[in-house]
Amino acid sequence: MTSLSPATDRPGLHISKPSPEAPVTASAVCHCGASATATGDTQVGALVAGWNANHGSAHGK
Q1: Which residues, given as ranges, of the chain have pLDDT below 50?
Q2: Fewer CB under 10 Å: which end of the chain, C or N?
């Protein structure tokens, strides 16, 4: 199975919560070279907001 985690050759945003007891985690890699990871609802929410505002499809705006 191919890894779902983003990488420099596969930019993107990945969010995971493998079980109800586990914290939500996220990782992001942009084609511009920026990368980030986050753990917990608040940090993951901030990472997603930052990705939407500044990376991914935001580069096309």
Answers
A1: 1
A2: N
